[in-house]
Amino acid sequence: MKWRLAMVVAIGLLMAAAPREEESRTVAGLEGKYRCVVSERDGADDRFASVKELQIDIDQHRIYFCWKLWQGDDLHRSVPYWLEREQTPQAMRIGASPGIYEATDDYLTICFDPELKARPTLLSTQQGSGHVLWILERMKP
Question: What is the pTM for the complete model shown?
Answer without folding.
Answer: 0.75
